[in-house]
Amino acid sequence: MSRLEGKIALVTGAARGIGFEIARCFAQEGAEVYLNDVDESAAIEAAEALEASGFKVHGDRLDVTDKAEIERVLEAVEAAHGRLDILVNNAGLNVREDFRHLTDEGWEKVRATNLDSVVALSRLAFPLLKASGSASGSASGLASGLACVLNLSSITATRHLRQLAAYSATKGAVSALSRAMAVEFAAFGIRVNYLCPGFIDTALTSRYIKNPAIAKALLDQTPLKRFGTPEDVAKAALFLVSDDAAFITGAGLSVDGGMAVGL
Ligand SMILES: NC(=O)c1ccc[n+]([C@@H]2O[C@H](COP(=O)([O-])OP(=O)(O)OC[C@H]3O[C@@H](n4cnc5c(N)ncnc54)[C@H](O)[C@@H]3O)[C@@H](O)[C@H]2O)c1
After folding, report:
1. pLDDT exceeds cutoff 60 at 173
2. What is the Å distance from ligand 1's center to 23 Cα?
3. Which of 10, 65, 72, 93 best tests ligand 1's pocket when mutated (most atoms within 8 Å of CB)?
4. Is the pTM of this model over 0.90?
5. Whole-number pLDDT of residue 32
6. Is the CB of 197 under 6 A from ligand 1?
7. Which of 90, 104, 188, 219 has a 20 to 30 Å separation from 263 between CA atoms?
8. Ligand 1: does its nearest atom lie under 6 Å from the Cβ of 92?
């Protein structure tokens, strides 16, 4: 399969979990993937594992809260390709705390990682995305289709889970920002969509999923009666960045076993 043949993709927070699976899936579909993470050694190890499978992957450190690091990573992409076809803003984390006890530090950390990073990376990558978008459909020999931004929002953007006020607030903002970007970027040949995963089995959610009482309560609210896998999310990501979604922009796709809509 080669639905992303010739595409240049950058995936943040991709050393593990959903980001890693998106990077693996895109590489498998023919994309050349820049796989980044604040955990540098894990990013390099993950990229090496994919390279060993014959995929084109570059592993590097990128702390998405550090503007200078974002610029350095984008400069490398620009030097090598002069464009970026797919940007996946995946890096994210949560801080569990009742809202009334949330510290300034906790709020700053969640906001900087989940929201400010999407603002910074999307703005700084815009010229490279625009270079891709304006080349699409031309006789330049570049990959066809529009450039894409895909942001990781969450079911918590619309359904609150206790002790995740900061997380929910940033994800709600990511959804709104994605829609705004979609409208503005369309004129430059760039589609922008976002994913709203429910409970996906990763390090981020293990404290819920591994607790039998909490896991049961969550599955009771999930019509498909299972937790999601990173592969479930990667397949939705692939659809949204592929030409199969050529007329889709500003859309949020739930990957949650039906949790958002009810029992
Ligand atoms: N797992 C779920 O159920 C779920 C549900 C909804 C949304 N999401 C979102 O999906 C994305 C991926 O989540 P996951 O479950 O794979 O989490 P995860 O914790 O398994 O992986 C997140 C990755 O992001 C990296 N990261 C953290 N801070 C970073 C920073 N400042 N710069 C760069 N990388 C950083 C981590 O090192 C880690 O490799 C997140 O945005 C998360 O909010 C996950």
Report:
1. yes
2. 13
3. 93
4. yes
5. 98
6. yes
7. 90
8. yes
Answer yes or no: is the C-beta of 64 below 6 A from any ligand 1 atom: yes
* CB of 254 sitting under 6 A from ligand 1: no
167 catalytic per annotation: yes
pLDDT band with cut points at 50, 70 and 90 for residue 136:
low
Which residue is catalytic, options 34, 167, 194, 208? 167
Instruction: Measure 90 CA to ligand 1 centroid, in angstroms.
Output: 6
The confidence score (pLDDT) of residue 138 equals: 41
Cα(117)–Cα(174) distance, integer angstroms: 10
Residue 135: band (very low, low, confident or very high) from pLDDT cuts 50, 70, 90: confident
Domains with residue ranges and CATH for the chain: 8-201+229-254 (3.40.50.720)
